[in-house]
What we know:
The chain is α/β, with parallel strands linked by helices. It has helices spanning 44-52, 118-122, 125-138, 158-170, 182-191, 222-232, 268-272, 278-292, 309-321, and strands spanning 2-6, 19-22, 32-42, 60-61, 66-73, 85-88, 101-105, 109-111, 149-153, 174-178, 195-197, 215-218, 238-241, 260-263, 300-306, 327-331. The strands form 3 sheets. Strands 3, 5, 6, 7, 8, 15 and 16 form a 7-stranded mixed sheet that branches. Strands 11-10-9-12-13-14 form a 6-stranded parallel sheet, with helices on both faces. A 3-stranded antiparallel sheet has the order 2-1-4, covered by helices on one side.
Amino acid sequence: MKAVAYQQSLRIDQPEALLDVELDAPEPSDNDLLVKVSAVAVNPVDTKVRQRAAPEQGYKVLGWDAVGEIIDMGKNVTGFQPGDRIWYAGDVTRPGCNAQQHVVDYRIAAHAPTSLDDSQAAAMPLTSITAFELLFDRLQLDQHSNERTLLIIGAAGGVGSVMVQLAKQLTSARVIATASRPESKQWVTALGADLVIDHSAPLAAQLSEEDTVTDVALLTHSDQYFDDVIELIQPQGRIGIIDDPASPLDITRLKQKSLSLHWEFMFTRAMFETHDIKAQGRLLSQISALVDNGQLRSSLGKNMGELNAENLIKAHAEVESGKTIGKIALTVPQ
């Protein structure tokens, strides 16, 4: 099968940072679905793995966002059949989906929404899982959160684009989103944010006395905004982060306000095969229903054409720039 992979951890401006390769097609294990991949999306985790984890030998395939058709299944699989169109993010400890065929544990996959095309669907699984788990498992927001105000820092990216919508659709919290460029401010406003402020300026000064922030989703540069967040958040508030801070966070600063810090990593369930691993499949089914009911829109920002090394290099470069709005997807030729 055709795939895009890498052999060395190189800067993305190097011509061999990603390569077009031919690999053997994978075979499904007992819990796996074998998928003919139709489209994939690119996430920051792809660029981080490429930069930090060179394969010991051979090629490493990246990619943890896919939509495709089931062509074979393991003996333990239930709830699916060959021909089903599914979507999933996968497991970062296994080969990625930047290939014509891919295997994924059926417990972390779901039927894809019928109202989205392949690129629109591929843009959503990883960021939807991250946003959902951070909102409801970590920050513990719910439909009765009318006295809570959620601040989403970095709301125009992939996770933020879904989180704004989920928070507005599934909770009663007030949603304040940050964005710095005119086009990104317009994007998050269209997604439903109640207020948009600029994260390139001091945050607290842009909030009124009525904007009593109780929960913060710190989606980017957590070390840069950590002090500002501690200043503006209400006592006994919750802070959720998803990135890798460039410098250590001083958690002793949380004590005076009795703040709690929560890390969200959507691969945890798959990596450790947690007792509730099936929750991820159920979560994606719920997201699929919300999309088909018109309650969520795809976070696709752009389609960069067919999956090949040249186009994927461009996609990685754009993700690394930190200026993407929504998600980048590519279609997979068969």
